[in-house]
């Protein structure tokens, strides 16, 4: 039996006591909602059972474990990010749009992003994302090995920034404000003798705060490097 799949005969099609007909999609919906409201610790079978109005053990008819469910939730985020995505002939534009879609989706679900970013879901949406990204790089002229290596660098960069920005967004507002303010306040007061480079750029250090486009800059640097490394197009006769 493939990992992450529960046989259909084990799945409940009768309504629960609360009148709910369970499905994998409904369970993932509720899991996303619970984590969004209460944080990662809410991803438990007990809380899911309460939210769904069913015995917690019923969840195991659809998922082998809470980790199996987490992978399904992570795959849902990938699916949301790719919904309606149809890259054109410009492979650089395609990668750029793909990156922006992933980043936006993770910021829309900041409390699940850090849990999902580093997992391999082994599910349909992830298969499509990897196939699409590698396809764009092969369209650029990279051979098979180079396309895989460059896609790994691309997606790890995007997911890393997405998870970092989402984690910052998930902070309590006062903590987020204090972290951002530190670049304009605490860093301005460091001794010049000990930190001469910080003193030299102190007026620019607020750019280190969140929301100043670190993701955009990193993405454009990476895309520029990929474009520079891409094999020259062959002229067809």
- CATH class of the largest domain, please? Mainly Alpha
Count all strands and give the number.
Answer: 0
CATH superfamily (homologous) name of the largest domain? Tetracycline Repressor, domain 2
User: Strand-residue fraction?
Assistant: under 5%
> What structural class is derived from the secondary structure elements?
mainly alpha
How many helical elements?
10
Overall pLDDT level: 90
Q: Please give the share of residues in helix.
A: 55-70%
Counting structural domains, the number is: 2
Low-confidence stretches: none
**Computed CA radius of gyration, to the nearest angstrom:** 22 Å
Shape: flat
Q: Span between N and C termini?
A: 51 Å
CATH topology of the largest domain: Tetracycline Repressor, domain 2
Biggest β-sheet strands, sense, barrel = none
CATH architecture of the largest domain: Orthogonal Bundle
Helix and strand element order: HHHHHHHHHH
Keywords: DNA-binding, Transcription, Transcription regulation
GO biological process, one term: negative regulation of DNA-templated transcription
Pfam families: TetR_C_1, TetR_N
InterPro entries: Homeodomain-like_sf (IPR009057), HTH-type_TetR-like_transc_reg (IPR050109), HTH_TetR (IPR001647), Repressor_TetR_C (IPR004111), Tet_transcr_reg_TetR-rel_C_sf (IPR036271)
């Amino acid at each position: 039996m493939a990992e992450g799949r529960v046989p259909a005969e084990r799945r409940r099609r009768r309504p629960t006591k609360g009148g709910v007909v369970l499905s994998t999609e409904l369970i993932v919906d509720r899991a996303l909602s619970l984590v969004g409201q209460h944080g990662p610790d809410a991803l438990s079978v007990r809380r899911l059972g309460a939210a769904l109005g069913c015995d917690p053990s019923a969840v195991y008819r659809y998922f082998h474990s809470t980790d199996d469910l987490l992978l399904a939730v992570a795959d849902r985020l990938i699916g949301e990010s790719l919904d309606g995505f149809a890259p054109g002939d410009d492979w650089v534009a395609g990668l750029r749009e793909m990156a922006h879609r992933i980043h936006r989706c993770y910021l829309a679900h900041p409390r699940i992003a850090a849990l999902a970013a580093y997992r391999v879901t082994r599910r349909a949406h992830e298969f499509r994302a990897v196939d699409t990204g590698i396809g764009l790089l092969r369209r650029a002229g990279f051979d098979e090995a180079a396309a895989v290596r460059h896609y790994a660098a691309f997606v790890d960069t995007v997911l890393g920034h997405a998870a970092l920005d989402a984690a910052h967004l998930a902070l309590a507002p006062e903590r987020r404000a204090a972290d951002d303010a530190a670049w304009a306040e605490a860093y301005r007061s460091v001794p010049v003798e000990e930190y001469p480079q910080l003193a030299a750029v102190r007026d620019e250090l607020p750019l280190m705060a969140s929301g100043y486009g670190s993701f955009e800059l990193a993405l454009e640097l990476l895309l520029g490097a990929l474009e520079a490394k891409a094999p020259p197009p062959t002229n067809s006769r």
